[in-house]
């Protein structure tokens, strides 16, 4: 059930950027987990600004492709704690599992082929 419009998705994207920027300080991520969070925040912001949808500024990336990237990132974040060796119960493991799950939920609920995305292009 695709209930999130492109406009609402864009607002959620900006919230995700803020969460990624604030997480290292608020939950105590350091080292590579913090660097990954800051890098993902920058990449996610750039992708949002470049996407052809209401929140996009430069509108170069099709909204459908934006969705494909988010699907891949969501799955990668679920795998990251195991691959990077984050310990059981560590803040980094909990954070990246939660972020991966949240991104996949937003992906599953977004209408990537919605009329609003093409009308704003």
Could you write a compact summary of the structure shown?
The protein is mainly alpha-helical. About 70% of the residues lie in helices and about 5% in strands.
Mind explaining what this structure looks like?
The chain has helices spanning 6-26, 31-50, 63-84, 91-109, 115-119; strands at residues 51-52, 61-62. The protein has 121 residues and is mainly α. It has one domain (6-116). Strands 1-2 form a two-stranded parallel ribbon. Helix 3 (63-84) packs antiparallel against helix 4 (91-109). It is globular and about 40 Å long. It starts with 5 loop residues before the first helix and ends with a helix.
Secondary structure elements and their pairing?
Layout: H1 6-26, H2 31-50, E1 51-52, E2 61-62, H3 63-84, H4 91-109, H5 115-119
Parallel strand pairs: 1-2
Helix pairs in contact: 1-2, 1-4, 3-4
Keywords:
5 helices, mainly alpha, 2 strands, globular, two-stranded parallel ribbon
Question: Strand order across the biggest sheet?
Answer: 1-2
Largest sheet: 2 strands, parallel
Number of E-type strands:
2
Basic shape: globular
- Provide the residue-averaged pLDDT: 94
Number of domains: 1
What portion of residues is helical? over 70%
Poorly predicted runs: none
Rounded radius of gyration (Å): 15 Å
Structural class: mainly alpha
Instruction: Give the SSE string.
Output: HHEEHHH
Ends: how far apart? 24 Å
Helix count equals 5
Percent in strands:
under 5%
